Amino acid sequence: MCRQLEARGLVERRASPTDLRQRVIEITARGRAARARIIALVSTDSPLARKPDAALEGIAELVRSFE
Description:
single chain; alpha+beta; Arc Repressor Mutant, subunit A; two-stranded antiparallel ribbon; elongated
């Protein structure tokens, strides 16, 4: 999944400055723009707009995990 997001320019991976075994994944400006579009769609013209707040918060948490 991360490779696909990286190939689309939505995230960047780099070595951790403190542990070279780890990778740090950061959302790019393009990724933040995509996230904003997704949230706008979900909150208006989507079947997800009718989902309970708890379900939407789970989706939002997943999106935030890419920051």
